[in-house]
Hints:
Elements: H1 3-6, E1 9-10, E2 16-20, E3 23-28, E4 31-36, E5 41-46, E6 49-54, H2 59-80, E7 83-90, E8 95-99, E9 102-106, E10 113-116, E11 121-124, E12 130-135, H3 138-150, E13 161-164
Antiparallel strand pairs: 1-6, 2-3, 3-4, 5-6, 7-12, 7-13, 8-9, 9-10, 11-12
Amino acid sequence: MSRIGKRPVAIPSGVTANIDNGTLSVKGPKGTLSMGLSDLIDYKVEDGAIAVNPANDSKPARSHWGMQRTLVSNLVEGVTEGFSKVLEIKGVGYRAQAQGKKLKLQLGYSHDVDLDVPEGLEVKTPDQTTVEISGIDKQKVGQFAAEVRRWRKPEPYKGKGIAYRGEYIFRKEGKKK
Length: 177
């Protein structure tokens, strides 16, 4: 039994959910999100909540149960509050600057790295060493943050690079004298 899957996803006021043609659509104050429904899972919108249950007692249905409930929960949370990731840039001369729908990074390469911001995401740079990525789709926010971080991962000797806020970088010891 899935402990997560047993709990229905509460629908807050101002949010509507519809199931049509194998698609769950959730509309809220921040926008609209939808996802395709799995044949292994039964979805029901009732009493101000979305109930997610396995369609049968097979192992694949039970293994998808908790994940599908979490995906539905992410839809509801995304249209009400949204998601965000904060990246911190450490290193001499490393900088970031948001310019409209582009993110310009200076990371010690011979050229600047220009990244196009995906549709539906918002990128802010409150200062030169902080990048805030926000949006209503959790997967898109996390994917773009990972793509930005990929250009200069934190290294273990000096800790330089792009890291998530609050991420612990394991530092190696230097040479002994």
